[in-house]
């Protein structure tokens, strides 16, 4: 079995504005870079074997900062991209209500179905678990992809909004997924400062 750490990317301007990012290629803001540096400091003394990442800028930038801290190159996998948001990408909740009404979630706006997100996320995790037995793997992705995949694998764990640069650790033992750490952002309380 592999030990897999699921990491949500650092914060972006669109996160702060409440805009749906989806597959839009949005970069980290300065706070997001700082969050990634704090997480990198947290994991820098740990023994990680590989880093996989979404190729979207916000995840890619987070993964590079982590990879630099532990001396690993990034491997990209398109299955780790965020849920496609269709027509809602770039909009806030108020803008969606103004444009499509209160029931905009019930309209066909080109949003990727949750089941499809779960399918590609779980396919990736199952493959990594088999490919990297006995290794510790970092996976940098996005809130919806991580949450929907996690909820499918561990439906008994209450849903929480994943914090930016949160780390969630999962393992598959005796054909059953389990978690030892969920949505942990304790590194954001660190007083570490980069030289």
UniProtKB/TrEMBL annotation:
SMART domains membership: PGAM
Active site residues per record: 9, 82
Residues annotated as binding substrate: 8-15, 58
Any GO CC annotation of this UniProt entry: cytosol
InterPro entries: His_Pase_superF_clade-1, His_PPase_superfam, Phosphoglycerate_Mutase
Any Pfam family the entry gives: His_Phos_1
GO terms (BP aspect): negative regulation of glycolytic process; regulation of pentose-phosphate shunt
Domain of life: Bacteria
Keywords carried by this UniProt record: Hydrolase
GO molecular function: fructose-2,6-bisphosphate 2-phosphatase activity
Name assigned to this protein: Histidine phosphatase family protein
